Structure formats: structure tokens, C-alpha cells
Amino acid sequence: MIYLDNGATSFHKPPAVARAMARAMARCANPGRGGYGAAMAAAEEVFRCREAAAGLFGCKPEQVVLTCNCTHGLNVAIRTLVEPGDRVVISGFEHNAVTRPLHAMGAKVEVVARRLFDWEEALESFEKALKKKPKAAIFTHVSNVFGYILPVEQMAWLCRQYGVPFIIDGAQSAGALPLSLDGLGAEFIAMPGHKGLLGPQGTGLLLCGRSPQPLLFGGTGSESARQEMPDFLPDRAEAGTLNVPGFAGLAAGLAYLRRVGMENIAFREQMQAKRCVAGLKKLGFTAYGGPCQLGTVSFLPGMDCEEAAAMLAGKGIAVRAGLHCAPLAHESAGTLATGTVRVSFGHDASDGQTNQFLIAAAALH
Ligand code: PLP
Fold first, then answer.
1. Which protein residues are within 6 Å of ligand 1, measured from CB?
2. What CATH number matches the domain at 2-11+262-364, 3.90.1150.30, 3.90.1150.10, 2.70.40.10, 3.30.420.40?
3. SS3 breakdown of the chain: % helix, strand, coil, rounded to 5?
4. Model confidence over 263-283: pLDDT tens digits?
């Protein structure tokens, strides 16, 4: 199989990830819940992951809250900054993991930065919205549909200038593009462990620039005599037993990234995205490409998108079709009625993958 659905989750993980998970299952009990060897071994595994994440993402280990996925982290972050009726600014490329929690809490949402691959429009419309003093701003680093890299450094700078707290959704950039909690001054940065960070499903990270409101309440192994959740991190936002094998695997994924270098992964993905867009255009399809694009490409085949993805699956090519849980991004790009077929490269992106995909795609007319 040629796996080109890394936007959903990474599939070909470094072998060290599964090894670390098996090792954790063999030697770890519950972290923070006992002083005996197996409990201490679990605490060490978890801390190793927190420390590696802190080193990669510009914060202290205790600012790294371990979550189930990116959605979990975004919900904690949004619950902390936004109250019902608050005005919030978001980009036109947000995932349902941002828009649904905002909708559920009755936030008033202003959507800006709606033009694909257009930083000037993004920054102009964003600044205009910030002048109205919204309660918070939330923006994705990279669109999961189009691979569009938003100008997050400049957007973060604008937020700091206007005193607007902000959340970054790093779901599609973590593991490929630089992200620093301290450097950007974000309140929160949420990311999955199972995509570009190469950990297993059921893992995610929430980097906390401020103390979050707990989403779950329960045991933490600390301050057990009190009924309030601890007010210190990371315990405040980590109720219940952690996914120790998962975070042991994620630590191995982070170690791999450090060794290979995120900039090298970004380069490989971007090279293949460019080749893919050019190849698709040559075949006569509408393909969405631009100057600020990571490793994800959307295109319109000459037929129904779901049918096209099924045809590609029949030839051993794994891509995704439809709205990709981001109807807002499609609305912004004008593809809401049709959806798109999405090709998303990962850390193992290669010429061979792109060539095989293009050979198969040639039959989609
Ligand atoms: N945000 C973006 C931009 C995404 O692409 C995704 C997943 O595809 C999410 C959030 C949610 O991530 P998770 O599935 O880890 O909750």
C-alpha cells in the first residue's frame, strides 16, 4: 500500500515506537500512584515524553499536558478561554475540532483569513478583527485540507500587540514545522501525538502557557485529601490513569524526530507536494497548490471524490475523500459542494510514492 493519508494519522511509524510501547506494557504500572519499581518505571516513561516534548516545543515539562488526541487539548483550551456568548476570531481553515466546541458553547465567531495561500489577506483581515477586542483568537497552523501554512508567527505577534489571548491548533504542523510555546506567547498549543509526532493513536499534547480549566475531574495521585483539582500543572488537567504505553511510544516518536530533524521532514513533504500538484495539473485536474504549502494536496478528480478515492484504494493507494472534518475550509476555498480528494505525505515521503500515485490518478477521468 502507498499510504498517503498522513493528515488523518501517520501509519508507518518508526519501529522504535512499537518497541517502546511493548516495553512499557511489560514493565509499567500506574504512574504517580505508588513508590514501588513498576509505578516508578511508569512515572519515568511519562516524564521522558513530557521532557522530550518540552525540548522540542519551547516550554517546561510541567507545561506539557498529556491528552487523548488534539481534539481533547483544543476542548480544554477553548473551555479555559471562552465563555458562552464571547466573541472569538478564527481562521477560515479551522477543523471541526475548533468550530464544534465553539458552536456548542454558543460563542460568537468571526471568521477571517479566508483566501487560500494568501498571507496578505490573512494578516489584514486578522488585524482588523483583533482591533474589535475579541475574547480570544484560535487558528490552525496548517490546513488539514489544503496544506496551507498560515502565517502563525505574524498572527501571534498581532495577538500580543492587541492583547488578545490565542490558541494554535498544531495538528498538521507538529513534527514538521517549528512551534514554540514561549517563542509565540500562545496561551495554548494543541497537537495530536499520532500524526506528525509519530506516536500511537490515543495520544496528544496540550502545551499550556496558562493554567487550564479542567475538562475531567478525578484522581491525580496528588493532593488526594482535597475535593478541588490540584491547581498546579500538569496534574490540574490530567485526571485519571494515563495512557502509559501510548506516551512511551510517543517519546520514541519524538526521539526519532529529533534525530532525523523536523526541517528535513518538512522539506521532503514539501518537495512531494509540489511534484504532486504539478503532476495532477498535467493530468488535467484542478489541484490546489501555493507558495506556503506543507505536505498536503487537495484536488478535484474528473468524477465524484468518494468514487475516485475508492478507485485509488483498489490500486493500493490510500487517500481520503470528502470534507475531511473541515467544512469551513471547503467553504473558504469554494469546494464545499464537492469536497476534494486529499493526498497527505508523511515523514517517509518519496518520489516513488508520488510517481505511483500519479500513475494511478491518470485513470480518474
Ligand atoms: N485539527 C486539525 C487541523 C486536524 O487536522 C485534526 C485531525 O485531523 C484535528 C484538529 C483533530 O485531531 P485528533 O483527531 O487528534 O483529535
1. 69-71, 95, 97, 140, 144, 169, 171-172, 192, 204
2. 3.90.1150.10
3. 40, 15, 40
4. 999 999 999 999 999 999 999
